Structure prediction request, 77 residues.
Amino acid sequence: MNRAEALKILLGASGQMSYEVALAPFADVDQTAWYASFINYAYTNGVVSGMDESTFAPEADVTRAEMSKMAVKLYQL
Prediction:
């Protein structure tokens, strides 16, 4: 499972339905991609950060630690 897929699953499980927010600053997130709104929402709300300041790596495999961190931050909202 990649980072974008994991984020979508976590957001769906949280019941979050609206993802209209500012754009995240990641050069590797195409704003027409299916996952862009999920990443933008999660970044804007402090659920995720990038691999660095300009890279999210949506297609990279998610680690258990990354998924756990996203879940903890999401459920603290």
Remarks:
- The CA atoms of residues 4 and 58 lie 5 Å apart.
- The chain is about 45% helix and 0% strand.
- The helical segments are 3-14, 36-44, 64-75.
- The mean pLDDT is 91.
